[in-house]
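ping. complex inputs:
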Amino acid sequence: MGAECKCNCEQDKSLDALFAQNKGNPNGLIVVMAAIQESQGYLPKDYLVKTAEELGVPLSDVYGVATFYAAFSLRPRGRHSVNLCLGTACYVKGAPEVQAMLEKEMGIKAGNTTEDRRFSLDLVRCLGACGIAPVLTVNGEVYPRMSSDKVSEIIAKYE
Amino acid sequence: MNFAELELLRATAKETIKLRLGEEPTDNFKYHVLVCGGTGCISVGCQNTLDAVQKAIENNGLQDTVKLVVTGCMGTCEMGPVITIFPEGYYYCRVQPEDAEEIINSHLKEGKFVERLCYHAPDGTVQARKSDMVFFKKQKRNALRNCGLINQTSLEEYIAMDGFKALSKVLQGMAPQEVVDEVKKSGLRGRGGAGFPTGVKWQFVLDQKADQKYIVCNGDEGDPGAFMDRSVLEDDPYSVVEAMTLGGYAVGANKGFAYIRMEYPRAIDHFNKALCRAREVGLLGNNIMGTDFSFDIEIRVGAGAFVCGEETALLASIEGRRGEPRPRPPFPAVSGLFEKPTVINNVETWASICPIIINGGDWYAPWVPKRAKAPRYSPWPAELKIPVWWKFPWASPCGK
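pong. complex structure:
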């Protein structure tokens, strides 16, 4: 369609604007934290302290939310985000072998980031693309019908 | 957009899709080439196929007689990229960019379909057209009625397929109680899995006296291998927008939240586009269709917690808290979001509502067996091998 949106829904997504919009409003906590996660790649401590002050939420609650949701990370992430689906369909189609190869090539266990911060490797739940299982995504780009012999070629593409 | 303008737009829009519905077209297009743009097909490279088909159409100078449409999921993700060509509905599977020229030359220029690309059933038969395919013949589609037939984010094509007809019917002369009665009569049950009668849930909320009520759509689909909600949100987002608005009218709410999991970026994108377009033309927001009914919807993106698919956990998450379920009662219908009466229904439930209002509850009821109710679509493995779409009446024997 390509039509420009004219409904004023495009809110200013900058962090300052979000803090201003949600000042004193604990209900905006997840929205603000998602924006921090997106812009910083993780949740730095000083940002969380500021969030707690601005929204009027105890820091312990902020920490509670940060550790509850999988989308939030308290540690810095790698430049490239590698996600391997371990949903049931991918699992039975051979995702564990792909996982083993990824861990071997990167030299880390899943859930971690390489020392040079090149890759973060995570295992995710069903991506809903079972027709092309096993599925690997790198920075959101989808690699269908994965097998362990394709791993080194794919990760070599990302510097 | 008022009622008359909506009908005027519908009449114009209908002309443009007649060919797909098996009617005589009034424009110059002889063929509609539908390329599946569902997530399954995108993941196997339908963009390259689409580009090749577009180029081939242009190279052969067929732009004026062949219409190219990107649609939502056609239902056979394992066979992607999929192309359907109307008027006959020939169904081509695993179409690669290099196949484009052959399709254009043989099918569109000489009128001979390309058998090589048609669906070859395991028993060896060639099921060339959609209407020949046993896979589709056995299905009855309601929630997925528009998927794979119309452009995903086109308001015009949605309206052409009876979109916003239910909402306009309700706003033009149905009392909230009449709407709830119709849903009750249909026997529709919550499609999220628990199967609670939807009409009864709406009645609870309608009966509550409160200064504020809420409508919530549960799009936090997380079960492995399940992608019903994603398909609806990506491929027919207006059906959920319309149904939530209608639900708001029925129970007396003016605000809705659509909670969609972050793992579905395209669903969020398409749903947001649908919200914007609907607001722009006055089908959402203040004074919908010129009446004094106002309703708006906000998207809340999930933050990656499986348990938030549970309704009380989901409501806690919208409120900015840890998504932890709480015991009931009180039920959300009495004390839900921000402790206000709340209707919370699954995406598939919402998508089932509009045809029920248009055709009446009695139309839907016969699909419903005595115990478990209504057709259910499910990404069950076909022949237990291939993950694809099936939509069966509930309680169909699995061996069928």
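Chain A has a mean pLDDT of 89.
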